[in-house]
Write a structure and sequence with these properties.
This protein has 13 helices and 15 strands. By secondary structure, it is α+β, with helices and mostly antiparallel strands. The strands form four sheets. A six-stranded antiparallel sheet has the order 5-9-10-8-7-6, with helices on both faces. Strands 3-2-1-4 form a four-stranded antiparallel sheet. β7 and β8 form a beta hairpin.
Length: about 400
């Protein structure tokens, strides 16, 4: 195994590509051990001279964004995939746990920083390791901290719950559409790439339904099976498109959007964690990202139902009805923002119904494999968005979906 060595610890590269962060005593590194600050110092200095590797060479890649002087470390408990640490109060460093895990992010964040896009947190740069056998890969990213910010699974569900209780209608769906279009316009290079053909897209989507059916049991599985006919028809109806393909966000949902005050920022350009590396970095059309974001609004309705403990049919119809209207607002705002940026051709709206169905099925699969308590969100969305097979409706009574206890 090889190591990237710093004063207060090291990143160890295992033969299988796993990166392990260790402190100076050889224990798993954490906030306060000093390793995160050591690597952040190198990135901000634009020099890896104070670091060493047992094999290969290090490169500190720095942008022009100014950073504060502090280097105290505070943990970020919500990052379950990598080790993220707030450094000096204004910077957050993400130490990767897998070789190649941040290559996509570093490339896209550098492009967005060069374009002056302020819809993402400020980007200070990256630390790259050039290895003689594995090639070059980003092992740490340094970005700006957004003070007093919450992610969308919190603020969006709060807004919807407040509206349900009699508050103002949430205006964030249009803000999300504008945010997505602004980032897409910057990522679109202007030279269109061929989009995946409809047959390929349909085959991938149809396979997702079969996997979801196989993995989802109990009442959720029964509700899913009752909608398999209408879901399969939507997936089979995804059309050919003339929209261009380009580098997308790849994992676009409300949980990737921070809000502080009235401003929104988009995070995490690593791509879809459910896809293999090669497929994760493949260019696709804007409809893929927009569908993913729209599907997350359905699941916001599920989260709000859980917070409200709204289990009666009228309340659930109202919440999922809001989600449908919110998706229309999102798409409308995206359409107008992309057109104003000079790219009216980016989004093919005819692709959205099938891709939204596919994404909700992927959420069921993700819950089964990684986060079982999340199943209720996709289950509720699928139950209320898609029609049950008429033959099943006349034959059996379906178990009702209700939110789990808060």
């Amino acid at each position: 195994m090889d190591e990237l060595r710093a004063v207060h610890g090291c990143l160890r590269l295992e033969p299988d590509g796993v990166l392990t962060a260790l402190d100076s005593q050889g224990r798993p590194a954490s906030a306060g051990s000093g390793l995160a600050a050591d690597l952040a110092v190198a990135v901000l200095a634009g020099s890896a001279a104070d670091l060493a590797v047992t094999s290969g060479e290090l490169h500190a890649v720095r942008t022009r964004l100014a950073a504060g002087p502090g280097f105290d470390e505070v943990p970020v408990p919500v990052d379950m995939t990598n080790l993220s640490v707030v450094v000096g109060g204004d910077k957050i460093i993400k130490l990767m746990r897998r070789w190649g895990g941040a290559d996509r992010s570093s490339r896209l964040l550098a492009r967005l920083a060069a374009a002056g896009v302020d819809a993402v947190p400020g980007y200070f740069g990256s630390l790259d390791w050039e290895h003689p056998e594995h090639g070059r890969s980003t092992v740490a990213l340094v970005s700006a901290v957004i003070p007093d910010a919450e992610d969308g699974w919190t603020w969006a569900a709060d807004d919807v719950a407040d509206w349900f209780r009699g508050g103002a209608l949430p205006d964030f769906p249009a803000a999300l559409g504008r945010l997505a279009a602004e980032v897409h316009a910057a990522l679109f290079a202007g030279d269109p790439l061929p989009a995946p053909g409809a047959a390929e897209v349909r085959a991938r989507a149809d396979g997702v339904l079969d996997v979801a059916l196989a993995l989802t049991g109990g009442d959720a599985g029964e509700r899913l099976a009752g909608r398999a006919h209408s879901l399969r028809a939507l997936l089979a109806g995804i059309p050919e498109t003339c929209a261009p393909a380009f580098d997308l966000h790849g994992d676009l949902h409300v949980g990737q959007v921070l809000r502080s005050g009235s401003r929104y920022w988009l995070l995490d350009f690593d791509g879809d964690p459910q896809l293999p590396d090669a497929e994760r970095d493949r260019p696709d059309t804007a409809a893929r990202d927009v569908a993913h974001l729209a599907a997350s609004l359905d699941m916001v309705a599920s989260v709000a139902a859980k917070r409200l403990q709204a289990g009666d049919a009228a309340s659930l119809e109202r919440l999922y009805g809001w989600a449908g209207e919110a998706q229309e607002q999102l798409v409308s705002a995206y359409r107008s923002t992309a057109a104003a940026a000079g790219f009216p051709q980016l989004l093919d709206e005819a692709m959205l119904p099938g891709l939204i169905a596919e994404q909700l099925l992927r959420e069921l699969i993700y819950a089964h494999r990684f986060l079982p308590r999340w199943q209720y969100a996709a289950d509720g969305a699928i139950t209320y968005r898609f029609e049950r097979d008429p033959a099943r409706t006349t034959q059996t009574k379906e178990p009702a979906w209700t939110p789990p206890a808060s």
